[in-house]
Amino acid sequence: MISPLLRGLARHRLYTAINLASLSLGIAIFLTMALIVRYEADYDADLPETSSLYRLDQTWTLPGRAPEEIAGASFVAVPFLRQDFPAITETLRLVPQSQPVHAGARVEQEDTSFVDPDFFSFFRLRALNGDRRSALAEPANIAIPASLALKYFGTIHAVGRTMRIAQDARPFVVTLVFADPPRNATYHFGIIMRLPSEAAGWQAVTHWGSTWGPLFVRIPDAGALPSIRAGLRHYMARHPGANSVQTIRDDMGDGGLVPVPFRQIHFRDATIGTGTISRALVTILGVVGLVALGTAGINHINLTTACASLRAREVAVRKVLGATRASLVRHFMAEAMILTAVATFCGLALCEMALHVIGTLSGWQLTLDPVFCGTLCLAVVPALGAGAGFYPAMILSAYAPAPVLAASRMPAGGRMGARLHALLVTLQFGFAIGLAICTRVMTDQARFVRMMARGIATEGLIVVTSAADDSLVDRQDVLRRALATVPGVTGVERSDIYPHFVTNGDTFSLDTTPENGATLNWGFATPGYADLYGLTVLAGRWFDPQRGEDLRETHRLQPTVRSVVLSRAAVEQLGIGSPQAAIGRLVREEDAAPALRVIGVIDNLRLNGPHEHVHPLLFYGLRPGDRARTAVAMHVRFSGVSAPDMIARLHAAWIAAVPDVPFAAETVSDILAQDSRSDRAHGLLFGMGAGVAVGIAALGLYGLSLFTVSRRRHEIGIRKVLGAHSGNILLLLVDHFLRPVLLANLIAWPIAWIVMRTWLSSFDQRIALTPWPFVTATAGAVLIGYATVVAQTLQAARQPPARALQNG
Question: DSSP for 325-359?
Answer without folding.
Answer: HHHHHHHHHHHHHHHHHHHHHHHHHHHHHHHHHHH
